[in-house]
Amino acid sequence: MLDAFGIYQHHSRNPQENFSARVTRQNPEAKFAEQFALAYRDKFSKIHSGTSKRKTFFVREMPVFGNGIPDLLVLSWSRDREMNLSTCLDLEKLDPTVRAFEFKLSDWRKGLMQAHRYKFFSNVSILVLPNHKMKSAAPQIDIFRKLRVGLWGFSPETRAIACFYTPRPIKQQIPKYGERAIRLAAQSFRSQFSPLLKLSQAVQ
After folding, report:
1. What is the per-residue pLDDT for 147?
2. What is residue 148's predicted lDDT score, i.e. its pLDDT?
3. Pick from 64, 44, 69: nearest CA to 54
4. Which residue among 65, 85, 105, 189 has the highest number of C-beta atoms inside a 10 angstrom radius?
5. Greatest distance between any 2 Cα atoms in the chain
6. Radius of gyration of the chain (CA)
């Protein structure tokens, strides 16, 4: 069973505790991203059936040092490195796999270039399009394979995720950028869970 800590908006100018907790006014692409994130969280174990890294943390729209702002960043790590309230501040030490997602409703070429930039700091970078837009991108699958950028389709109506091409996780192109991305995600992690940690310590 998947252990998901939640899906959180990166704390920047307009922080939100949990972007799925309430419906806010969003553009269509942001809504598409939200619907995908919820579906992906629920289907993570099935999609990545071969991985042992099934504990996850999802964070939305986190800027990564000049390498773009992925619409969704997903960190996953092994259960043998179990986390609880007493160790929840050690995300950097868990050797997580970092998956970066870019969402586009139509312009797959622009999305491909943006997703390609995320390879500098992620282990896997994936472009997600609406299923009905895959007709234009799918014939170009060789380009995605050459650039090692994943191509997935998603239907908000059915919550179906179609994985046309998923590259295997590899080391980040620039390790220090990967470390920074994990550190930034850890800051979001801490901002969400440090209140729980303080409450637990106070009860003890």
Report:
1. 97
2. 97
3. 44
4. 189
5. 59
6. 17
Confidence (pTM): 0.81
DSSP-assigned states of every residue in the chain: --EEEEEEE--SSS--S-TTSS-----HHHHHHHHHHHHHHHHHHHHTTT-S--EEEEEES---TTS---SEEEEEE-GGG---TTTTT-GGGG--EEEEEEE-SS-HHHHHHHHHHGGGT-SEEEEEEEGGGHHHHGGGHHHHHHHT-EEEEEETTTTEEEEEE-PPP---SSHHHHHHHHHHHHHHHHHHHHHHHHHHHHH-
Distance of alpha carbon 189 from the chain centroid: 13
C-alpha 157/C-alpha 131 separation (Å) is 10
The ranges of the chain with pLDDT < 70 are 1-26, 80-89, 191-204
CA distance 33 to 51: 24
**Dist CA 95 CA 131 (whole Å):** 33
Cβ 197 vs Cβ 91: under 8 Å: no
